[in-house]
Amino acid sequence: MGVAPARKALGRALIFLGPPGAGKGTQAKRVASQYGVPHLSTGDMLREHVAQGTELGGRAKPIMDGGGLVPDEIVLGMVEERISRPDCEGGFIFDGFPRTLAQAEALNRILDRQEFGRPAVIYFRVADDVLIRRLTGRRTCKLGGEIYNIYNHPPRVDGRCDNDGGELIQRPDDRPEVIKERLAAFEKQTMPLVGYYEALGVLEPVDGAAGISDVARSVAGILSRIEAIN
Ligand code: AMP
Fold it and tell me: Which domains, and CATH codes, for the chain?
């Protein structure tokens, strides 16, 4: 009988930064399971609030439906509460957070308070035409959240998840008119974070236009390098 390999330690906040459709969610899910740490998608948390009909969800829904960004204080409150839970002690992965300079600065203060050091930031670079194709083709499993793409990563059976047979649905904000707004919000409000994290010396770019396994290899390479340095 083999001995299970020891889990690698993350021990930090890892941020997946990039435009919508860059593959952050797909890669974050993989890395989170490799390291046994939570995958924290603020988009998923907000969709959960909407689905449960909370007051916060009610405020966020019209903004999300239009492709804009939910106010910083809503997102920050949600994030600070989430990372103070015990399952985050060994580190965690942010997907889709921070998205504004104010969120990035507030996150640094939160990480200091909770005695995490500097975050590591992986920046997924992808051209707009590739993003649009990915977003319009994206389908998500209603049960487990597994992500597919009807063009380049289709499920084995049309409309059904390979893992659990769950129904595959299209996010309401993956419609072309909303995609345009989301890409504009990224350019205007999130792009400045690239310079911000570069100046802090923690930005690691990857070519997010490559296939899923190639991007996964680049991400793994960066993570081993970071582990070796620290
Ligand atoms: P995502 O699933 O990351 O594409 O997020 C879906 C939507 O949720 C976004 O278009 C925003 O409206 C909202 N959202 C998610 N994360 C954030 C964030 N960090 N700041 C503001 N709004 C967010």
Answer: 13-37+90-140+184-229 (3.40.50.300)
179 closest CA partner among 122, 130, 124: 130
The residue among 4, 21, 12 whose CA lies nearest residue 138 is 21
Tokens of 138: 């994206």
Locus of tokens 């009988």: 1
Contact 51, 57 (CB under 8 A): yes
Neighbours of 16 (CB within 10 A): 26
Beta bridge partners of 139: 148
Q: Give percent of the chain with pLDDT exceeding 70.
A: 96
List the catalytic residues: 24, 99, 138, 171, 182
148-189 confidence digits (pLDDT tens):
999 989 999 999 999 999 999 999 899 999 999 999 999 999
Q: Is the pLDDT of residue 78 over 70?
A: yes
Of the residues 74, 99, 124, which should be mutated to test ligand 1's pocket, given the most ligand atoms within 8 Å of the CB? 99
Q: Output the CA torsion 175→28→76→120 (10° steps).
A: -130
Please state whether 185 falls in left (phi above 0), alpha (psi between -120 and 50) or beta. alpha
Q: Determine the residue of 40, 42, 124 to mutate for testing ligand 1's pocket, defined as the one with the most ligand atoms within 8 A of the Cβ atom.
A: 42
Give, using CA atoms, the residue closest to atom 2 of ligand 1.
43
Ligand 1 center–CA 7 separation, angstroms: 30
